[in-house]
Amino acid sequence: xxxxxxxxxxxxTNGALFGASGGAAVTGGVIDSxxxxxxxxxxxxxxxxxDGHDYIASAxxxxxxxxxxxxVPEGVGGGVIVVxxxxxxxxxxxxxxxxxxxxxxxxxxxxxxxTTTKEMCAAVLSERFITLRTExxxxxxxxxxxxxxxxxxxxxxxxxELGISDFGEMARLGRMARPDIAVYTLIGRSHLNNLRxxxxxxxxxxxxxxxxxxxxxxxxxxxxxxLAALQARQRLLRYSAEGRGDVNAEGFAVSAEGAVxxxxxxxxxxxxxxxxxxxxHLVYAALAAASVGMELGLTxxxxxxxxxxxxxxxxxxxxxxxxxxxxxxxxxxxxxDSAALAVDSASDLPGRLVCILGDMLNLGPDSARMHRELGxxxxxxxxxxxxxxxAARDMGGVHFESRDGLISALPKYLRPGDTVLVKASRxxxxxxxxxxxxxxxx
Length: 442
Prior knowledge:
Layout: E1 4-5, H1 6-12, E2 16-18, E3 25-26, E4 28-30, E5 40-43, H2 56-61, E6 67-69, E7 80-82, H3 86-100, E8 105-109, H4 114-125, E9 131-133, H5 143-149, E10 157-161, H6 169-177, E11 181-184, H7 192-195, H8 198-205, E12 217-221, H9 225-228, E13 235-240, E14 247-254, E15 260-266, E16 269-275, H10 281-295, H11 300-308, E17 318-321, E18 325-329, H12 336-346, E19 353-358, H13 367-381, E20 384-388, E21 398-400, H14 403-413, E22 418-423, H15 431-438
Parallel strand pairs: 4-5, 5-6, 6-7, 8-10, 8-11, 9-10, 11-12, 12-13, 13-14, 18-22, 19-20, 19-22, 20-21
Antiparallel strand pairs: 1-3, 2-7, 14-15, 15-16, 17-18
Helix pairs in contact: 3-5, 3-6, 4-10, 4-11, 10-11, 12-13, 14-15
């Protein structure tokens, strides 16, 4: 955030300013008062367990030039912009900041693979541009404004992850981010409790296109049936691992260490991609990133160098090796499509494959069928399937009533040399299984 004063923000948000210096500079915004400090505006949100208004005094003491709030708390003398709705005011400010930014903005959309694709795109664009990217999972109606607040005079490009769970959300995110390039990873079976079916997922995700201009670009996965058939007023560029796109992958291989390599081909251009990470999903993320890089004028060498610098984030498809096991730690989140791809990827590694799978959440009324289908796939690919969680009972295999019960039984079921995939929805906290596996001796 560059060039904004407290008075500017009050005008943009139609807020009433109490007791702050209107000329004080605001360089960013936070929603956690512990991060407040000079230049950083504290946005006081009301949550289920805490009310940000209770922390306004603390934020001001730490040097925040002003707080964005819905009321001035008792005992606070000033330094507050009062608005009817803090979240809406944050969105209004984010739209203004985005409107002043002249560099390319890339929006990442999809049911799975968004963070990997975001990181890959940022790695590639950083070879040419000073690139801002979404941090962590700040991809919703609070996270996107916080990301856009970080745009400043030094930023030359931005990669913004856009995540939703219901209709209408993507339109609101799109009005803030207004991407010049939208990257679609997959239309998959997630958040079906709200979106109902794949057509609903597609409809919700493509609300973004109505917020983009006709001269924008849509980069999409040509191997996804829903995306392959997409029609839009914007120009479309399809990428594919199966030879169906404008940008294709050829010669996929996995090294003994789990790194992947392949060629990226677009017409007469051929770029060798060597990525020091694991998983078949990396092919799609790299194709998307290379497509964006090509469109923004990067050279083949720059694209290849960016891909080579990619590193997984958090518990997303990390390969961990212990003296007795190879662990595929992919327990950040799970849905039927990402889990099936994880099983395929783990099958590429040597050793007996053991799948440890847990509940996939928010799948709606067909949840039992989707869990059963994943279990059938895992049992067809792996030597052993261990599950925990109420919904995971439908997968088959050896089921445990609790995650801790599964952890206790690990020595009984595992052998030296096994490759062990760990995957479940984030709320299942299967990272605790990964931690137990790392300390296991067989």
